[in-house]
Amino acid sequence: MDYSFQRYLNAKRTVDDRALNRTVWQTMLKQLEDRSSTQPLQVIEIGAGTGTMLHRLVEWGALKRGTYLGIDSDATNIQSALSDLPAWVEAQGLACTPAPDGFDLSGREFQLRASFQTREVANVVAKPGGQGYDLLVANAFLDLVDPSALLTQFGQWMLRGGLGYFSINFDGLTHFEPQLDPELEEKIIGLYHQSMDDRRVDGQPTGGSQTGRHLYNQLRASGWELIAAGASDWVVHPVSGGYPADEAYFLTHILHFFEVTLAGNPELDPLAFQRWLAARRQQIKDAELFFVVHQLDYLARWPFDDPRLPGEPLLPARPVQPMN
Ligand SMILES: C[S@@+](CC[C@H](N)C(=O)[O-])C[C@H]1O[C@@H](n2cnc3c(N)ncnc32)[C@H](O)[C@@H]1O
Q: Ligand 1: does its nearest atom lie under 6 Å from the Cβ of 51?
């Protein structure tokens, strides 16, 4: 089987569409409507992948006028986002003209510049001269980095009262049905979650397998005000003998993540692991597999009373209240 990370991200679109918490989304929509009534929106997305969130923001009515910049450290993702854009814009019934790193979208009430750049988040700098973003998006991203450090940095890029939409944050539960060998499966899933907790980037810890719940305190400690939060669980199941859209591939790629992460793990019997993978793959082919992952979405606001002048350094992080 040929695996493609870009195909995985595109297949994830319909799974995320169902999962994204509607209360959090609607709250964001209302806040954005208020902000965009006076000015075009400035939007940045970190870890934008193949650009599916831009599509969603437009298709679901959150973004019509302004600029969108998607950054991702993987050049293949960015190429895919850029090459898919003109056909998608056309399918929206909008005009598409080339612009630096992207395209201008126009027509109906739309006037939007969409650009994508291959860039590490560490190399993103605040806009000069007191400019900033109305909305920062990070979807299925914060478990891959050190959220505490980054959330403080994100604040420096925001306009006063700007919004952070931090969605699809993994929160420690992965489940497959129908059950096979529960003891083996508990071990496999436990080791997979452990690999997330052990992940280091440049020697620094990353969000890990409980990113979702930890974000609650991390957001507040880094100066963000929580506005809305809710569950955004992936639930993938067959319908009428098959999976919707490209979700069979999505499931197949999830098993691929398990295989590449855990192959050679001394705590797993290699034959038992291969048998488990084969049985789960067969369940996808037979449209039998049911898959659940628990995740959390957050909407937060960078304070209106942020006392910075343009170009001023970081706000000190707010201390978290101790439990007792
Ligand atoms: C799980 S994917 C999610 C992509 C997209 N947000 C989505 O939901 O389809 C995480 C993305 O973050 C990108 N990424 C990881 N570390 C990054 C970093 N340090 N700077 C920028 N992008 C990064 C990866 O290349 C990947 O595309």
A: no
